[in-house]
What does this fold into?
Amino acid sequence: MISQWIASGNRLTMLGGAGGGRRTSDPGTGGGGAGGKFLERAPTGVSLLAAEDKEMGSVSWAVYGRYVRCLGLVLACVVVLGLLAGEAAYLAADWWLALWAAEEPEQQAEPRWQWVYGILTAAVFILSVSRFVLFFEAAVSASTGLHNKILTRVLRAPLSFFHSNPAGRIVNRFSKDQGLVDDLLPGSFGEVLDSGTLVFGAVVLVGIAVPFVMPLFIPLVLAFMWVRKRYISGSREFRRWEAVTYSPIYTFVAATCKGLPTIRAYGASERFQQELLRLLSRSAEWSYASNAGWW
It folds into this structure.
C-alpha cells in the first residue's frame, strides 16, 4: 500500500505494485535496508541518494485486502450485497417482462404487470445509485486515511530518510501516486465490480435458460485469461516505469528554482532547459506507452 512506502527503511517504493512481487533493489543489498536500519556513513565522494526502486511482478492479493480494510469491512460487505441485490432485481425485471410478453393479449392489459415491472425497475435504480454513492464515499475516506498515514510516516521519518530521498521523490508520492488513489482507483474499482456483477448475472441467466451452452464458456474463459495475462503483465510495468519518471522532474525543478541566481550568473540557462526537456520527454514516452494500452 501507499502507506508502506517508507516502511522498509530509507527507500521509496512505487505505489503501483506495493506489496506484490519483488523490488528491483531488494533491502539488504545496499542503501537503507529492511527493519528500519539507518543509512551507514558513506565514503567521501559517494552520494547518499538511494536509487528509486519499483515493484516487479504481479500485485499481491494482500494489497487488495488492505485497501478493502481501508474502505471498511462492513461498508465493503454492504456494497457487495447491494451489487448482488441490484443484479437480482435486474434479472427479476427481465424475467417478469418475459412472463408479461408470454401472456394472452387480454391478460397483458391487467395493471399488475405494469405495477410489478415498475417496482422492480425502481428497485434497480435505487440500488444502483445507493451502492455507488456508498462506495465512492468509502473510497474518498480510504484515500484520505492513506494520505494521513504516509504524511505521519514522513513527519516521523529519521533525518537519514531525507538524505537518501530527494524532495521531488517525496512530492511525487503526495501528488501523482496519491492522485491515482483519489481519482483513478475508485472509478476503476467500481467499474470492475459493476462489470463483474453484470457478467455473473448473465452467466446465471444463460445457465438457467439454456444450460447446454455452458460448456462453450470454458474455452472462452481460458482465452480471456490468457489475453488478460499478456495485457496486464505489460501494462502494469508501463505504469510503474511511468510513475518513477515524475520524481526526477520534481527534483530538477525544485533544485533549479533554488539555484536560479547562480544558473543565470554562469549563463547555464540553456543547459538546464535542455535537461528539463530531456526529463519531460522521457516521462512522456512512458506515459504514451502506458496510455496506448487503452486503445
